[in-house]
Design a protein that fits this description.
This protein has 316 residues and is α/β, with parallel strands linked by helices. It has 13 helices and 14 strands. It folds into 2 domains: 165 residues, Rossmann fold; 124 residues, Rossmann fold. The strands form 3 sheets. A 7-stranded mixed β-sheet has the order 3-2-4-5-7-6-12, sandwiched between helices. A 5-stranded mixed β-sheet has the order 9-11-10-13-14, with helices on both faces. A two-stranded antiparallel sheet has the order 1-8.
């Protein structure tokens, strides 16, 4: 199902910033004292005169980015998702989203797998917060190639974008040169028994879960939604019509994230048997990746079990 190559989105992030900047002199990067973690330091080495070290002052960083955007620059904010979305939320809302300024916000270290940093640095609510923000586009690519393609699309988009990125290497799903269209979902697997909808790096786990279900004789339909806002509602409705049962799985709280977006779309356009799978209204904690995924029920085995529960089937 997946190309067996592991790559970290943050490495692709740093290299793609350089590529974009080489082609567009308007691009600037604003860093919240985390460049060696987010890999914005790759950009800093290539374009030191266009790298702005803003220190641990995320609110000010958002304001400076907004000001630069009014002057015709295309600023990219680089920090952890927990800080980009929550610590400077009022500034993002008032000076970036409300005037719909051309600022790109890269939220690194999203989700639970943040290298033993624990609940203070984990961000499991960021999709819910940012998709509720008028004018904000919300992207969550699945792997390295899609991260590159999503950044190209985000840079070309004339307004605010939130890009959700994970810390650690994840399986490669797509080939290089992927064509990314904001607002378009991607069907990764055809099937008729149940639709599994996922986003971000969690899509690789969902793909493994589909393999487990297929081994049991089921035919899962897998829809990857790298854009949470604007949502590809037509793709969601087609998945529901094809299968009659939808499982949404995400490395994010079940409140207001991808599952909430899908539920809203189906509730209005095609009421369907639906189950939301993710983090159950709790904060995370520090620990090894495999242990964290197991504790919070986010492994491929857990996803497959949720699918069987939705279909009323016992565990094999």
């Amino acid at each position: 199902m997946t190309v067996p190559t592991m790559i970290a989105q943050r490495e692709v992030f740093g290299r793609t910033l350089v590529e974009l900047a080489d082609a567009d002199p308007r691009l600037l990067v604003l860093d919240g004292d985390l460049a060696n973690s987010t890999k914005a330091d790759i950009f800093a080495e290539a374009h030191p005169d266009r790298f702005l070290a803003m220190g641990i002052a995320e609110q000010n960083m958002a304001g400076v980015a907004a000001g630069l955007a009014t002057l015709g620059f295309v600023p990219w904010i680089s920090t952890f998702a927990a800080f980009a979305v929550k610590r400077d939320l009022d500034q993002v809302r008032v000076v970036i989203a409300q005037p719909s300024l051309n600022v790109k916000i890269a939220g690194a270290y999203s989700g639970l797998l943040t290298g033993f940093t624990g609940k203070t640095h984990q961000s499991v609510e960021d999709i819910a917060v940012m998709r509720a923000m008028p004018n904000m586009v919300v992207l969550a690519p699945a792997d390295g190639p899609e991260t590159h393609a999503a950044m190209v699309a985000a840079h070309a988009h004339g307004g605010p974008v939130y890009l959700r990125l994970a810390r650690d290497p994840s399986p490669r799903i797509f080939d290089d040169g992927l064509a990314f269209v904001i607002g378009r979902g991607i069907v990764l697997r055809e099937g008729r028994d149940i639709a599994i909808i996922s986003t971000g790096v969690h899509t690789a786990r969902a793909a493994e879960a589909c393999d487990l279900l297929a081994a049991d004789g089921l035919r899962p339909y897998h829809l990857h939604l790298p854009t949470i806002k604007p949502l590809d509602e037509d793709a969601v409705v087609r998945a529901a019509e094809r299968t009659g049962a939808v499982l949404v799985t995400e490395e994010h709280t079940v409140i207001g994230g991808l599952g909430g977006a899908v539920a809203e779309a189906l509730g209005q356009r095609r009421p369907t048997l639906l189950r939301l799978h993710g983090i159950r209204d709790v904060f995370g904690e520090s620990g090894p990746n495999d242990a964290i995924l197991a504790k919070y029920g986010l492994t491929p085995r857990h996803i497959a079990e949720e699918a069987r529960l939705l279909l009323g089937q016992p565990r094999p």
